[in-house]
Amino acid sequence: MFRAGIVGCGNIARIHAQALKNAGCAAIQAFADAKEEKAKEYCSLYGTEHTRAYHSLEEMLKEEELDTVHICTPHYLHVPMARKALEKGVHVFMEKPPAISKEEFFLLEQAKEKSGKEVGICFQNRYNDAVEKIRETLNSGKLGNVKGARAFVTWNRGAEYYTGSSWRGAWGTEGGGILINQAIHTLDLLVYLLGKPESAEGSFHNHHLKHIIEVEDTMEAYIKFPKGCACFYATGAYADDAPVLLDILCESGAVRMEGERLKIIKSGGSSQSYDFEKKSGIPGKKYWGNSHQACIQDFYDSILEGRIFRNRLESVKDTFLLAMDLYSQAKQNK
Ligand SMILES: NC(=O)c1ccc[n+]([C@@H]2O[C@H](COP(=O)([O-])OP(=O)(O)OC[C@H]3O[C@@H](n4cnc5c(N)ncnc54)[C@H](O)[C@@H]3O)[C@@H](O)[C@H]2O)c1
In CATH, what number does 125-274+313-333 get? Predict the structure, then answer.
């Protein structure tokens, strides 16, 4: 049984705690939060009488013998916290994004290398049924080579989403806006499905939250992959959280994913539709998807079985460097 600790007891930590309880492979030994009452609340909600609450990661690492730490804190704390856990010889499973700058990402790589421990990143959408089906279809060659793709993330993130948070909306603490926080999942799917990008151009805007946030609410990009180009658009200025749309056009057909719905279309006109609706009983917001559980379970199983984890740090590097390149392109375009 792994001995797990969770740092940052906010929205997403609930999903990690529930996933660990369901998985049964790890006992949650401790929760830590800068607001200690939150750590105590999570102990009573998700722990046992042995689960302890701490007011900092440092204190938790000092007092507990842990095998894994889940990092569920604001973006600017991900790398400093991951490095501290790795220095203590503890595996790290961290929320996205893996870092907020390239320099930070390289520091994390070094710390992981030195520790010999695993670093897993929560790009849980790679485990979505629709995404697994797309990957299988593309790899089967039935649709021929990829010609191009387009992806749209049109969500609603209003002023209160930012004003109610101490860290969202600022470059120093969030590291960006819609791209690094919400649409990075979809950017990651493009890279996961189409491979290493060759080049990219992007621009960003703040359309609806001027004077409220300093980061972008909208990002568009044109990304060249070896087999075709992708047109990418993400905004938090839409009126609703619409299902993410992803189209991949191939020589002999196409795939269209809209949220959890998938259509595979063959050139002759025949098509097959799938509906992988959010399974009941899985907590969390609909747009977080179904797959935290599968991703977290696979992290633990891969360590136990000594195999490579799908979402290991190296596997998200292309996505992360692409996001950073888009930000520097966008800043230049300004
Ligand atoms: N994978 C997903 O689909 C998904 C969904 C939501 C959030 N997230 C990610 O999860 C992370 C947290 O997001 P959230 O919405 O839960 O944020 P949140 O603001 O609700 O929670 C963050 C928690 O961290 C605590 N914290 C802040 N500084 C701390 C410190 N120095 N030490 C200990 N605790 C500290 C806060 O008190 C708070 O309880 C972010 O990286 C976010 O991008 C991922």
Answer: 3.30.360.10
